[in-house]
Amino acid sequence: MADDKKPAAKKQYVLPHKNAKGEQDGWSVKLEGSTKPTKVFKTKVEAEKYAKELAKKQGTDVVRQKKDGKFQKSK
Fold first, then answer.
1. Residue 34: which of 55, 49, 13 has the closest Cα?
2. By the 8 A CB rule, do 8 and 58 touch?
3. How confident is residue 75, by pLDDT bands cut at 50, 70 and 90?
4. CA 55 vs CA 13, 16, 35, 40: distances in Å
5. Where do the structural domains in the chain lie, given as residue ranges?
6. pTM, to two decimals
7. Are 27 and 44 in contact (CB under 8 A)?
8. pLDDT on residue 62
9. CA–CA–CA angle 32, 58, 71 (5° rounding)
10. CB atoms within 10 A of CB 26
């Protein structure tokens, strides 16, 4: 008997983006489990907007991280 369950959609993460020197230089949107960002933005607002669009298309959630590394509560 075949299992018809789809794997859970991966979440979109909004994270502080760091340059080669380790300094924060924007905000990245990254797919759960990915090592490279999908896209990098200058502001967190822009990154969140893009992540929400992707998550809506994929039927999943957005996880936001603050500059200090702590995860932000869902809106």
1. 13
2. no
3. low
4. 10, 18, 18, 16
5. 12-64
6. 0.81
7. yes
8. 96
9. 40
10. 16
> β-pairing, 12-18 with 62-64?
parallel
Residue written as tokens 């990915």? Answer: 34
E strands, 1-48, are 12-18, 24-31, 39-41
* Calpha distance 32→46 (Å, rounded): 19
Name the token pair of 29. Answer: 């949107």
**pLDDT of 3 above 70:** no
Residue with tokens 């933005």: 41
Residue type, 17: H
Q: Give the chain's end-to-end CA distance (angstroms, integer).
A: 41
